[in-house]
Amino acid sequence: MDKTISIGDGWELPPLRSLYDFLLESSRFQLPNFRDFEKWGNRVVNNLVYYQTNYLYMCIAILLVVASVNPMKMIVGISTVIAVWGECIYLFNERESLLKFKRTYPQVGVILTIVCASYAIYTINSVLFVLFGILLSICVTFIHASLRLRNVKNKLANKIEGMGFKRTPMGVVLNYFGMKEEIFT
Q1: What end-to-end distance do the CA atoms of the chain give, in Å?
Q2: Contact 21, 177 (CB under 8 A)
């Protein structure tokens, strides 16, 4: 069995599956039964868990390809997303020191909101470009997870890795969306 990689603090990254196992075994792809959502969902979740390292690298590669088309748009779009995110964190954070600052200078929040909103509207093209790259990588991942049939090694690895499900990045994401370990039993 392949060995997982420890990335600290109890987190593990499952091994990178071979290209033959991930993509080149063409007889192992099939359209899912669209009438049976439970089987389709199990296939997607099990593939997301089994191939999660491959999906991570694939998403990074897709984002790099999209960024290489127009690097400046990507940089501006990412900076806009970070600015809006930072502004939201500032507005909704309730730490005592920050609350004291907000009460003392309430106009800072208003000015920050106006500046961030203006910047976001001015750079909406770049933000959409970044969101396109993210959405493209998510769509390609979901399509692969939907079409890829599970093999014996996949089923066995999912049973074994089901115990450490919450310690992997995909396990955290799936737990956030309400997927439970019972799927593997």
Answers
A1: 20
A2: no
